[in-house]
Design goal:
The protein has 262 residues and is mainly α. It has 2 domains: 47 residues, no CATH class; 204 residues, MetI-like (MetI-like fold, Orthogonal Bundle). 74% of the residues lie in helices and 0% in strands. The protein has 12 helices and no strands.
């Protein structure tokens, strides 16, 4: 086989794999336009009625608002904690650095269900079960590792002497970090914030154990709605999530080169 033929075979293989992975997304999006009151592929007619139902539903709007607030607060907290942790791991001589790094990254290893059950029992003892504050703390725990990974990648490629030079010219350590190091870390911080926001917004395994009255998130709402039958409303709200996530990834790629951190 010639090199040109091998390239075409490789491209065809990649296209088939990509198409297979995107097939479930296409099915959900197509089903959301069906005129029938049940999911069917191919859709029987085309309508936007189910999107209108989502935007008119108080339950869905409340869940969307809760998810947006939760993801925003968790992302801000994760960015502060993750950036500080990365800086300490790279620029400071911490005792037990490997242990600290392993503990911070451990939520990536444990299944979400295990984390959710463990936090539920812990919160029950503290009286935080079902509270929004407890949910925020849980989401900070599962999102900090993503921020640490991206900011570590960004910080590791920076010359530490740049900050030392700023201090030599009269700046204190905090000013040097704020004026020199932090702007250079921006690509990693933006990528980590996006990872954290998407992870928090889409989380089900942890949230389903910790949500209480008035704190139902959108993914949990979708998950529980499926118990009573799947209709195109679920496909419509899922399609909106897919579209929002895709737009966020495209913007992040154009702004900071998202592929460097994936």
């Amino acid at each position: 086989m010639t090199p040109s033929a091998r390239r075409w075979v490789a491209r065809l293989y990649c296209a088939l794999v990509f198409g297979f992975l995107m097939l479930p997304v296409a099915v959900v999006v197509l089903a959301s336009f069906s005129t029938t009151a049940y999911l069917t592929i191919p859709p029987q007619g085309v309508t936007l009625r189910w999107y209108g139902r989502v935007l008119e539903s108080a339950d869905y709007l409340s869940a969307i608002g809760t998810s947006l607030l939760l993801a925003s607060v968790a992302t801000v907290c994760a960015l502060v904690i993750g950036t500080a942790t990365s800086y300490a791991l790279v620029r400071r001589a911490l005792p037990g650095k490997a242990v600290v790094s392993a503990v911070v990254m451990s939520p990536l290893i444990f299944p979400g269900v295990v984390i959710g059950v463990a936090l539920l029992q812990f919160y029950a003892a503290l009286g935080l079960a079902g509270s929004f504050a407890g949910l925020v703390l849980a989401h900070v725990v599962i999102t900090v590792p993503y921020v640490v990974r991206t900011t570590l990648a960004s910080l590791s490629g920076l010359d530490a002497q740049l900050e030392d030079a700023a201090c030599t010219l009269g700046a204190d350590r905090l000013t040097a970090f704020w004026k020199v190091t932090l702007p250079l870390m921006r690509p990693g911080i933006v990528a980590g914030g996006l990872f954290a926001f998407i992870t928090s917004f889409d989380n089900v395994p942890v949230s389903i154990f910790l949500t209480g009255v008035g704190t139902t998130t959108l993914p949990v709402k979708i998950f529980t709605a499926i118990e009573f039958g799947v209709d195109p409303t679920v496909a419509a709200v899922s399609s909106l999530l897919i579209l929002t996530t895709a737009l966020a990834l495209v913007l992040a790629e154009r702004w900071v080169g998202f592929h460097r951190f994936t």
